Amino acid sequence: MATMNISLPDVMKHWIEEQAQSGRYSNVSDYVRDLVRREQDRSDKIANMQRLVEEGRASGVSEETMTDIRERALRQADLNQ
Fold first, then answer.
1. Distance of CA 10 to the CA centre of its chain
2. pTM of the predicted model, to two decimals?
3. d(Cα 18, Cα 35) in Å, to the nearest integer?
4. Do 18 and 7 touch, CB atoms closer than 8 A?
5. With CB atoms 3.0 to 4.6 Å apart as the test, which of 12, 33, 67, 75 could cross-link to 8 if both were Cys?
6. pLDDT, tens digit, for every residue of 19-55?
C-alpha cells in the first residue's frame, strides 16, 4: 500500500482524528480511505447521471404530453405487477 503525506489546518486535523477515534474507524488512514471511496462512488454516480442527461437530450423532443407519458408509465406499472 502506498503512503501519502498531506498538510491540513489544525482544525481539520483534530476533526479527522476525532472521527477516527469515534470507534467507527480503526485509525485516521481508515477514515481517509473511506472518504476517498465515498467520493469515488459519488463521482461515478454524477458521471452516470450526466451520461443519462446527454442521452436524453440527444434523443430529441417527444410529441407526447406529460399526461400521455404519465398514463403510459402507469399502464406499464400495472402490467408489471
1. 28
2. 0.68
3. 14
4. no
5. 12
6. 999 999 999 999 999 999 999 999 999 999 999 999 9
